[in-house]
Amino acid sequence: MSIINFVLVNLLTMSKNVHPEDRKAIDKLIAHMYEHPQEHFDISNHARMIGFSVSKLNKSFKVYQGIGPATYFRNLKMEKARKLHEEDRHTWTEISSIFGYADLASFSKAFKRIHGFCPRNATSGE
Q: What's the average model confidence in pLDDT over 73-82?
């Protein structure tokens, strides 16, 4: 079994361990994340948004998605940032501002953590 198949089977198994109503609430939160990637992730507000406690959100989200909600949101932001840059419509400084980072340095650090390379190297395909 390939590693990809193993991960997919594992995620499918984990998601079955989350109550259907909880999955629906988490899907609502994920949709919100996709619609508002420029927002700061506030675990308390996001938990409240879907009627969960912070601990329930963290636990259920991790079981359902395999990672915590803050990590999921950070990954989503960085993927959207990379795609936005590929459209050649914004500089990295503009993109860092769009996604709510105070400066390019903090954005670059987050980007590198997710993608494994700095934004300035993204155009070279590294």
A: 93
